[in-house]
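Lecture notes, unit on binding sites. The following record was shown on slide 14. It pairs a sequence with NAP.
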Amino acid sequence: LSDPRRVAVVGATGYAGYELARLLLRHPQIQKPTFYLRESNAHVHCLTELFPQLRGWGEAPCRTFSIDAVAGSGAATVFLATPHETSAEIVPQLVNAGMRVVDLSGAFRFRDAKTFEHWYKLPAPPQEFLDEAVYGLPEIYGDRLPGARIVANPGCYSTSVILGLKPLVEAGWIAKERGIVCDCKSGATGAGKEPKKELHFAEVDENFRAYGLFTHRHTPEVTEHLGLGLEDVMFTTHLLPVARGILSTLYAWLDSPREAHEIEALYRKFYADRPMVRLWPAGKLPELQHVVNTNFCDIGFALDASGRRLTVVSCLDNLGKGAAGQAVQNLNAMWGFDPQAGVI
Ligand SMILES: NC(=O)c1ccc[n+]([C@@H]2O[C@H](COP(=O)([O-])OP(=O)(O)OC[C@H]3O[C@@H](n4cnc5c(N)ncnc54)[C@H](OP(=O)(O)O)[C@@H]3O)[C@@H](O)[C@H]2O)c1
């Protein structure tokens, strides 16, 4: 019989998987997380063999991954910190085997299969599973999460941009026809642990570059969940020479002149009772060092003297609120646990 207090993690050797391990091992409602590794790691039996930094408190079991092994583990929920194509294949199998899934990949983030196929250049999962998946941004879709069987954890950049702009867009205060610029920067863990030439130390350290212009996969996520068209947004990503963290600078024109206190009041009202979003007073701006190794998204803004040009800064840890921390928030909402359990 499966138990909500028991969870499984697939992809534990990766960056997001490690962060999930760190959070779940300390989650007060979770007992015995089990970590599933590929056949090539069959010799690993304990998580501390992979991550010596967990020695002394993270002696959790590792098993070889198969659908049957996870489904028979007694866990009610499985976290997938796996590549998009792996998640696309195994989520339906795990759900059909009676499990609930929090998937950190992009495979279930779009209801429209064509959107996924166009931006990810991969075959989409079956439509019935796309239809069922809930986009796991608890601050916006918290009411859809209780009881959900498939939760599509949002992208890291997408989380920073959607949370940064949602109050303004929803209030209708942005002059969309003037365009919204999303100028986003991430640390190198955002690209995962697979070695790539452009991620070598010598290519990243003391360097800074833009990538994915007009082609970044998080673009359609941002526009869909902000209710905008692709033509409304310029979304550009950059690689920062740091390990973790995302800072998104978001530029917008307002439809009519506003005062800074109105903007602040709008955000405070929108994010009341959403403690993972921390707001800064007008003119004070968040920095990466305020959010790295946390599950917070920090948001600040500055308004120019005309009251029309607004710059919002939204910051988070790509492995925290941008991945594993958000996934644990989703677990809490799915099962009715304390919303902040395991993420503070
Ligand atoms: N990194 C981020 O900031 C971030 C943020 C949000 C979302 N995400 C998403 O989260 C997922 C994981 O990202 P990551 O950065 O942690 O990637 P990663 O560091 O490359 O890790 C990928 C993990 O998936 C495992 N894996 C690969 N193929 C598999 C298969 N066929 N069956 C079972 N396990 C398999 C790998 O195991 P091996 O060790 O055996 O290769 C590894 O544990 C991705 O979908 C990514 O897009 C990442």
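Take-home: The chain has a mean pLDDT of 97.
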